[in-house]
Design a protein that fits this description.
The complex is a heterotrimer of chains A (about 325), B (about 300) and C (about 180). Chain B is an all-alpha fold. Helix content of chain B is about 70%, strand content about 0%. Chain B has one domain. Helices cover about 75% and strands about 0% of the residues of chain C. Chain C is globular. Classes of the chains: A alpha+beta (about 325), B mainly alpha (about 300), C mainly alpha (about 180). Chain C: This is NADH-quinone oxidoreductase subunit J.
């Protein structure tokens, strides 16, 4: 017995066992579609793991091929289906700055409201996904219904949904087992490199999955208050840039964290661009989050990052 | 005759439970949808995974169904309406339900897949947690009835049901029964969000149909056991005894179903910790309290 | 009477059959579960011999015990699925000898022992359960309690031995070997 197991790697509990490499995804009920998580399992424990995106965006333009500004915006927005408004806004801002347009406060306001609407919808989508992962059917149903309503809603209808969103948060605070399931799981302390968005803001609190849940719920309420104070949302549309040229850079706080785009514009055509997203950094944290955890906890930790595989750059 | 009546009642309850389950998830009450989707399973391809342990793979769903029905065999619907009124009925149901574990280990090991295997072994851990909380409350129930015969246990609750006489035992048994039936929030062996279906993952077609039927039957059997042990079995005014048994059984089964809907899945470590640190001392306390009541109260 | 003898024989043969399977398979899980079903068949023999409580108890206890044994066998064996063609047998000559001697002794005892008069009518199951309870909590109580405490002590001791001692010397040693 000792002779045959002495060279095997030891896991945390000191038992030598066969390790299995098991894929989770790209189509897995508890994880966002397109994300492939490869875990090395030692029984029900994870010894190591990494995440890759199978649907990530290629982060450079083809050499010498210029893209029309409008087409560029459409492409970027449709490449990020989980946050298309944010990236449409990002592209518009970068191109307008490259063309040297001044900011227009009325447009900015409508755009900001649209961004906050998407933030609410995106966080609700994450809640539904978390409900699916935790086997919490009620949460999945409720959050998904609200998400659909918000995506269709006008500013006035949004305000009517406010009590429902408050009730959802209150309900989650009262749900038994939820806290014990999330508290202390997937801890990312505030000094961790590459944190951005809700994950970074939750790191100032406890930095675990429970803190991230409440950070997102708080952000839903904050966004609602902002919309209430500001007005109707307006989908970002490119203003008239003529045949302007120049370099532009823009940053947008997407639902998952900061996204940055810099591009070179020549006669109204995008010559080259460079994109940086929050998920691109967050996906690298997966390996440390899952190592040495139980399988269920590891998946909760990965889920709590709210990774969008589309926003990972390859 | 009794056999046929009980089996029909069991099947009917399973069908009703499936209809209600569909109602809670889709929001529509469709009486035939369950039957149709059950039939559809029979028509679908039943895929066998690569290099399975064929014996285990084929046996597991059938074994699960058999043990669920065997468990129901000792539970009375009415004073004489029981398949086998064994002298050791309360022990026999434990023996039958112990094989749920065997069936799940077979279903986990058989298909030669990682998700299924982890699911199967997870249930072994789950058994370590819930097993004592099934046996100890039943002990207290048998103490009051001074018998292991299920019909005598029901008769002993005439006037005062066990849910009032030993509420602590009822709560522990109800939770443990949900864990035994691996319903949410204790669905660790199947865990759709964690193991992609776990022991269910590799089953398709007619085998999956049998497995689903077995799981629902198991829920009904455990609900029926809860009824017999704690809710006064067939006792009740106006309606005939069998009707009361069925109503109570369905009510317990539906409450198990709904409890899972509003709760996230429990962590394995928490389940184990709470069952042992909290559950077992409470179960022992229940036995002591019931023992004192039996001795002191005439 | 004949029906009873028939069922005792059937379950007895099933117990032997599953017992043979335990050693004929290379899969640890199959082996453990074959042993389980062998023991279950013994439980059914009890039932056929009208000892209901003992039969049901045997059937119940074995399910859990053998499943736990199965996971330990899977954990500690190199080829738990038996798909690697590993030879799991050893000390063949000694074990054959031991098996033959043990079987011989059992047969001799079975035929030579004085089993007393045959019981004409077994008491009903409820009476048996009661008598068994009286026995367990009366004359035999000391034996069972002693056995119980001994097993519990052994379990605690085994767990204590299995947990590696965490000392600084120990962890330094561990790093050396890595």
């Amino acid at each position: 017995m000792i002779e045959v197991t002495k060279d095997l790697p030891r896991s945390a509990d000191g038992l030598a066992m066969d390790w299995m490499e098991v894929p989770f995804g790209p189509v897995f009920p508890g994880l966002p579609g397109g994300l492939k998580l490869t875990l090395t399992l030692d029984g029900d424990g994870v010894t190591e793991g990494q995440a890759t995106s199978l649907v990530g965006m290629i982060n450079e333009s083809e050499k010498g091929k210029e893209i029309d500004a409008e087409t560029f915006i459409e492409r970027l927005a449709s490449a990020m289906p989980l946050a298309s408004v944010s990236y449409r806004l990002l592209a518009c801002l970068a191109i307008e700055r490259a063309a040297g347009l001044e900011n227009d406060s009325a447009t900015d306001q409508a755009r900001a409201v649209a961004l906050e609407c998407e933030r609410i919808a995106s966080h609700l989508g994450w809640l539904a996904q978390t409900g699916r992962q935790l086997g919490f059917a009620w949460l999945t149903d409720r959050a998904a219904t609200l998400q659909l309503e918000i995506r269709r809603a006008s500013g006035k209808r949004l305000l009517e949904l406010t009590p429902a969103l408050h009730a959802l948060a209150a309900r989650l605070g009262r749900t038994p087992l939820l806290k014990s399931r999330l508290k202390g799981i997937g801890i990312l302390p505030s000094g961790t490199a590459g944190l951005s968005g809700p994950v970074a803001r939750a790191a100032d609190d406890a930095g675990d999955a429970w803190a991230r849940l409440w950070q997102r719920l708080d952000e839903i309420i904050t966004s609602l208050d902002y919309i209430k104070a500001t007005g109707e949302p307006g989908l970002p549309v490119l203003r008239n840039i003529g045949r302007g040229s120049g370099t532009g850079e823009a940053t947008v706080e997407t639902p998952r964290g900061e996204a940055q785009l810099s591009l070179i514009l020549e006669h109204g055509q995008v010559k080259s661009y460079r994109l940086d997203t929050a998920c691109n950094h967050h996906i690298g944290l997966v390996a440390t989050l899952v190592e040495g955890r139980e399988l269920g906890d590891a998946l909760v930790a990965v889920g709590s990052l709210d990774l969008s595989p589309w926003e990972v750059l390859v | 005759m009794n056999l046929a009546v009980v089996l029909v009642a069991l099947l009917g309850s399973v069908w009703l439970l499936a209809v209600i389950e569909g109602w809670t998830t889709t929001g529509r009450l469709r009486l035939t949808a369950t039957l149709l989707s059950g039939l559809a399973y029979l028509g679908r391809e039943s895929i066998v995974p690569r290099t399975p342990d064929r014996i285990f793979f084929e046996t597991a769903p059938v074994l699960l169904l058999i043990v669920a029905v065997l468990g129901a065999a000792v539970l009375p619907l009415a004073p004489t309406l029981v398949i086998a009124d064994l002298a050791t009925g309360a022990l026999f149901i434990n023996a039958a339900l112990a094989y749920v574990l065997v069936a799940l280990i077979m279903a986990g090991w058989g298909p030669n897949g990682a998700y299924a295997m982890i699911g199967g072994w997870r249930f072994l851990g789950q058994l370590i947690a819930y097993a004592m909380l099934i046996v100890m409350p039943i002990t207290a129930v048998a103490m009051r009835a001074e018998s292991l015969v299920t019909t005598v246990i029901v008769v002993s609750q005439d006037g005062l049901w066990n849910i009032v006489y030993q509420p602590l035992g009822f709560v522990l048994f109800f939770i443990a029964a949900m864990a035994l039936a691996f319903r949410a929030p204790f669905d660790l062996p199947t865990a759709p969000g964690e193991l992609g279906g776990g022991v269910d993952a590799e089953y398709t077609g007619v085998r999956l149909a049998v497995l689903r039927l077995a799981r629902l039957t198991l829920v009904i059997t455990l609900a029926s056991a809860t009824t017999v042990f704690y809710l006064g079995g067939w006792h009740g005014p106006l309606l005939p005894p069998w009707a009361w048994s069925l109503i109570k059984t369905l009510a317990v089964a539906v409450s198990m179903l709904l409890a899972g809907r509003y709760l996230p899945r429990i962590r394995e470590a928490d389940l184990m910790r709470w069952c042992w640190i909290l559950g077992i001392p409470l179960a022992l306390l229940n036995i002591i309290v019931v023992g004192l009541l039996v001795l002191v109260v005439p | 009477m004949y029906a009873q003898a028939f069922f005792v024989a059937v379950f007895g043969l099933a117990a032997i059959g599953f017992g043979v399977v335990v050693f004929r398979t290379s899969s640890m899980v199959r082996s453990a579960l074959a042993l389980l079903f062998s023991q279950t068949a013994v439980g059914c023999m009890f039932l056929a011999m009208q000892t209901e409580f003992l039969g049901v108890l045997q059937i119940m206890m074995m399910a859990t015990e053998m499943s736990i044994m199965a996971i330990f066998m899977v954990m500690f064996m190199m080829d738990p699925g038996g798909m690697g063609g590993m030879d799991m047998t050893h000390q063949k000559r000694f074990s054959i000898g031991a098996g033959v001697v043990a079987a011989g002794v059992a047969i001799v005892v079975a035929f030579w022992a004085d089993w007393g008069p045959v019981t004409a009518e077994a008491p009903d199951a409820a009476m048996q359960t009661r008598a068994l309870g009286m026995e367990l909590l009366g004359r035999s109580m000391l034996i069972f309690e002693t056995a119980g405490i001994t097993i519990l002590t052994a379990m605690i001791a085994a767990t204590a031995v299995a947990i590696p001692v965490q000392t600084t010397a120990n962890s330094a040693d561990k790093e050396d070997t890595e």
